[in-house]
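Practice problem: predict the structure.
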Amino acid sequence: MKLLKRFIVILIVLVVVLAAGAYMLPRNVSVARSITINATPEIVFPLVNSLQEGQKWSPWLSLDPDVTLVFSGPESGVGNQLEWSSDHPNVGNGKQVITASEQNKLVATDLDFGDMGTARAALRLDPAGTGTKVTWSFETDMGMNPMGRWMGLMMDRWVGGDYEKGLANLKALAEGG
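Answer:
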């Protein structure tokens, strides 16, 4: 009986320490990856300024051939919107809308993952010699949820690899003409 009480006390202390420790972790999480593409910003920009074009290089949409995509708004630029739904756990459901578009320089989007939260993403294009350095970034607020704060520690590993795949796909598409 003493052993059981000791175990319960240790478990309670551990839970309290983990919960309290979560609030010492960063609330805001960001991830960024870059690649240099051997194509001018004028060639790359149309591929990132349209969510319809984005499906050609997305690292997630190819995971589920049965994903449902619904586009609305203009075909490119601010207001271009994509809603997706999938039973695949790495694709899920959500909505993305372009919120800022600066010709040959920047495309910013808001993401809504429903119960999973919201985030902002951006694709910045910078001239790099005869090519373009593309930086894809992601920012989200993990809020006051202690579990979310701990998950924030893994966000770079989870999202970063997918961003690297997507940028490689974008590079192949842009360089392939």
